[in-house]
Structures are given as structure tokens and as C-alpha cells.
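Consider the record:
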Amino acid sequence: VHPNVSQGCQGGCATCSDYNGCLSCKPRLFFVLERIGMKQIGVCLSSCPSGYYGTRYPDINKCAKCKADCDTCFTRNFCTKCKSGFYLYSGKCLEKCPDGLEANNHTMECTSIVHCEASEWSPWSPCTKKGKTCGFKRGNEVRVREIVQHPSARGNPCPATSESRKCIVQRKRCQKEGKGKKNREEKRKKSDKEESKETRQESKGRAARRQNREQRENNNKTQPKKKKAPNKELNLAPVDTAH
């Protein structure tokens, strides 16, 4: 063993040097060189830091550096997150997204363009004028629809969600609110009155029937029972018709 190589290392190092730090790592740890000023120090880590990707070999596990425009990567040719100013697309970091795609500044990725989508129109509303449906001949009717998919930054904008058109109806007079209310009150009172009259007549009829039934029962109790007359055979003498 070289005099500058020590076997009693710390921090996951298998072998180390006082000047260069870790020279080799314990199993399953990754070896990476960190620059401190003009000097590079070897360290052993359980996972590679940002800007590096890990490769495993039979004798050593190493952390290799990603491309300059890549913040994190799976391999040198496949980036998973780009640095500021670049947009991720299919593992690559681009300054401008390809045609048919747009830059998403929130995720810093190139995504598909989304166009606006609207639902079907609703049926036309009743013909109205100033909020009323009577007292006019020409009015307006409207229909509406909803937005079911909002567009992305470069997507087609949403269309109008309401339409209005002129309409013609058969003119009819509006019933005055006071008169209509009065008529409704009168009808209600008349109905209540007729219902009360029918109820009273029905009560009187039940009372009369009950009184007649009680009177018949009392008469049957006070009247003596008639005795049946015995059957007598009449003896009629023969009439002499010779005189």
C-alpha cells in the first residue's frame, strides 16, 4: 500500500488519501470527484448529486456529469430536468420547442397545444322583453353554452358562450298583479266557503240520521208487544134458500 493511502477512512471510503480524499468506496456507494478551488477531492455518496448520473461497474460505482444544459439526467444522453432557460422534450434540453408544441414555463417542458372546446348550445329561451313574457309583440330570446376545455397559451381562444336573436310572439295583455292577487283571494275564499257549507250540510245530515235512529230505538223500547189472536174456526149454519 502506498504510504499516502490509508485503510482507516471515514465517510464511506474504502481507501483514502490525506490529499485526494476518497480513492475507492465501500460497496453500493458511488464515487464522485468534487472540485474545491483548483483541487479535486474524492467522496463516496449513496446517490449521485444534482447534475450527475450514476453508473455501476463490477469494481467501482461512479457518478458522471450530465450535459451542460441538463440539471438532472438518467444517462448522459437522456435529461430529466433542464437548467433555467431550457425546455425539456424527449430527454433533451431545447431553447425553443418544436412546431406543434409550446413552452410550459411552469414545468419548463414542451407540451402539446390545447385548443378551447365548448359544449352544445342550449335550447332557445322563451321570448321576453325587459324581463317580461307578455305585453309586447317583438322581443328577444337567448341560448347559452359552457366551456368544457380551456385553451393553453397558444391554443385557439374560446368562442362566445351566449347568443341573442329577435323573436315575435302573439301579443297578450299582462294581468295586473293587484287584480290577479285579488282574484286569487276571492277564489280561495269562495272555495273555503263552499267547502265549509258542504261540511255543515254533511254534519247536519249525520245528526238527523242519528236522531231518527235513536227515536226508533226508544219507540221500540216503550211500545208493548201485540199478542197474536188465536185462530177460531167459524161455524156457519146452512142458509135456507127455499123461502
Observations:
- Confidence is low (pLDDT under 50) at residues 232-237.
